[in-house]
């Protein structure tokens, strides 16, 4: 009788070659069936990350010299490969991080959409010709690649968010070193293979599997050696602050996409069923593990009771469980996320009332949930939680939860609602449900979020819109659309004086003398 095939070991890719497995193994498991090993991963060290940046530096010159329209062809080919492998890649996402399959298909489509958008940008990396104040002098501007881009991403969107960095960075002529979440290594490996087979040369895209401390030390080494020109990071506010500080020491401005405590304001004139539907998806889709997940529903006092009743009813009826089935959400991503959510549940205090499920915490035989799909004991499944009565004095109101829980708070005036919405200090996404345009534009002007939705959930990005936040949610950098080009290119200006003589700006300028004393 033959023994079962051993799970292959994933190793980092540096300079187009797989490195040998090292002494630091990591096991990536299926969070809906924790006994299922998805990938064995050999974790790299800080020196490996620095070496990958050195390999990227060596490869970047040749890639920069490939004409942008040709780089666009590589991006277009990547998009076609992603579409051809959409179902297979989505299955890897669902198996490794527990995202419902329908959502995983949407995530993969987002990669294809990103590639479709940026394939055309290869023919539109426009500069400008600018009129000079002097005769016989021409002024030009050019977009140049920054050089080597180090990208560090989380695993809640293990393939879509990395594509927001990698695709435009490559299109602009940069080489990339990507450090994916180790618990999403199989997803990362699949995306790397698609990009490599699209024609990205060896060394232009490097993948390093490492944990957080080694990643930070590796960035410290690479930045100190002058091997990295731009850092992109998606993850927690705390980790982003450390990376921002590190980059600042080297006079670099990173692209930081961090956490969120995203408010939904439900005005007195809101379409209540629509608001409840939006809250259900925004709060509990992906088990609340999105940076754009709903944090607090801030509901006008005239609708508060009915909103809570309807939301409680909708959440109790929503199927939870096996992510390959038709469910609202599946498991938490991994053990450390489950441990983190357990701490969040400890923020529920005596002044709060809890709704949404017959229990809180892990779904088990002893704490069951009606209508659960699959075997709750097999994975990291948690009850959805609605907590009414939260306010600015509560940790649950102030801090990102990253799990299937939302708070509910009443308000009286729009000014009060906006003050509550801004109070936690994040500024990623916000939504408002209303029929009144005046409310919409007043809310938009005063909310701190980088993204605002009207009569829609706090979650949902499109490839051609800027994505990013302010305050504790980021440093004002933006991803997606043409706006991300400013992250991965630098402007260079050139003046060409063909007059045959030295013309000094602001000094040798022809002037016109107006008669400013003239009156009608």
Automatic annotation (TrEMBL):
Can you name this protein? aldehyde dehydrogenase (NAD(+))
Q: Which organism is it from?
A: Actinomadura fibrosa
Q: Which InterPro entries match?
A: Ald_DH/histidinol_DH (IPR016161), Ald_DH_C (IPR016163), Ald_DH_CS_GLU (IPR029510), Ald_DH_N (IPR016162), Aldehyde_DH_dom (IPR015590), ALDH7A1-like (IPR044638)
Identify the EC number(s): 1.2.1.3
State the Pfam families in the record: Aldedh
| Stored Gene3D superfamilies | Aldehyde Dehydrogenase, Chain A, domain 1 (3.40.605.10), Aldehyde Dehydrogenase, Chain A, domain 2 (3.40.309.10)
Q: What's the top EC group for this one?
A: oxidoreductase
Q: Which residues form the active site?
A: 257
The Aldehyde dehydrogenase domain sits at 25-493
Q: Assembly and interactions?
A: Homotetramer.
The family assignment reads: Belongs to the aldehyde dehydrogenase family.
Please provide the record's keywords in A-Z order: NAD, Oxidoreductase
Highest taxon of the lineage: Bacteria
The protein's matches in PANTHER family, at most eight in alphabetical order, are given as: ALPHA-AMINOADIPIC SEMIALDEHYDE DEHYDROGENASE
